[in-house]
Amino acid sequence: MTVQTLPLDDAAVARIRSDFAELRAQVNGKPLVYLDSGATSLKPANVLDAERSFAENYTAAVHRGAHTLAAEATELFEQARVRVADFVGAEADEIVWTSNATEAVNLVAYAIGNATAGRGGAASARFRLEAGDEIVVTEAEHHANLIPWQELAARTGAVVRAIPVDEQGMLRPGAAAEIIGERTRIVAFAHASNVTAALAPVDELVRLARAAGALVVLDACQSVPHMPVDFRALDVDFAVFSGHKMLAPTGIGVLYGRRELLNALPPFLTGGSMITTVTLESAEYLPAPQRFEAGTQRISQAIALAAACDYLSIVGLDRIAAHENELAARLVDGLQRIEGVRLLGPTDAAARTGLAAFDLEGVHAHDAGQFLDDRGIAVRVGHHCAQPLHRRFNLTASTRASTYLYNTTSDVDAFLDALADVRSFFGAAS
């Protein structure tokens, strides 16, 4: 790695960019400007090397077999868990490997459903839902933090309620206190919106949940890659994030859970590697995290995720957050200067992460995306798996530019310059 712990000005970012081979690519004959990290980030050389090294030198199943390769693979796998746990302020046995954050949310929701059905014995009684109990989300949630709760409600008779957002996508003042109450059992929300970039008032929501005796589930997909996050300090019960949004491969995600809660939850998937004793009539399960890791695991992906955490730590999450805040300010200011642009989310860059979704008057988001792609600029178009939020804005789709540690002010300027030509190209300019 060539990265050093330095302020992330454009010179420092240029050194970081040398670790990402794809940033040397051209698209349609133009240098790639990658502004889609909110969907999937690029991967640096050390992450690719970590996954390749395992595949070339340590291929074996973990927690099985007594031969040397199996022992070495298991050690690497569990070392990765320790490194990822350290990255988010957790203990190793509070980190469960999943395929992605979506699976992690489903794991919690399905396990609570199993507890409600009577699985897990007395230890799981604290999770059981009754008809009329409430699961509180927000109007801004990604589908992955909404649909699993809808399904849990359908299975248990619970009710899903949503905290509304205002015209800037911020939670309406006082609305959370009006909705979170004595029937609330779960409060699930995103740390940062993948559409408006707005940061949630975590302290307030956790305080209200604690007063109601409710569990707190945090979707940290858009925060863990971009800023220092300590789940213990945030006082959440469960949290989820995905590797592919933070320099790691696809196919690896993380569920964080308080040790005592994970050990009380009944399992989600069952099979090999998560049991102690099996008879033809019943089974007994290992403590967390293994009780939630049935079958062959995502070994090389977990090791690569740990390498990604190492990379981000060396660069410095505080520096990454400051850099992205500067890029966000440049994005927000530039977008508001372009005629016909409607920015989604707060106009104060300090209240948002380094992404910006917007509507372009008279031009469909997909057309805007294709125009930008012709200029070599990669952005996301669509509803970003947040249809209720887009419906709140009377939109079916938007265009989203999202930055990361390897983006420069020149990337943002190239995007804004190209976007300024879109409406005239499609005959939508006045």
TrEMBL record:
It catalyses: (sulfur carrier)-H + L-cysteine = (sulfur carrier)-SH + L-alanine. Catalyzes the removal of elemental sulfur and selenium atoms from L-cysteine, L-cystine, L-selenocysteine, and L-selenocystine to produce L-alanine. Keywords: Pyridoxal phosphate, Transferase. Belongs to the class-V pyridoxal-phosphate-dependent aminotransferase family. Csd subfamily. Its cofactor is pyridoxal 5'-phosphate. It comes from the Bacteria. The keyword Magnesium does not apply. InterPro entries: Aminotrans_V_dom (IPR000192), Aminotrans_V_PyrdxlP_BS (IPR020578), Cys_dSase_SufS (IPR010970), PyrdxlP-dep_Trfase (IPR015424), PyrdxlP-dep_Trfase_major (IPR015421), PyrdxlP-dep_Trfase_small (IPR015422). It holds the Pfam family Aminotran_5. Residues 33-415 form the Aminotransferase class V domain. This is Cysteine desulfurase. The keyword Transferase applies. PROSITE patterns: AA_TRANSFER_CLASS_5 (PS00595). Its EC number is 2.8.1.7.
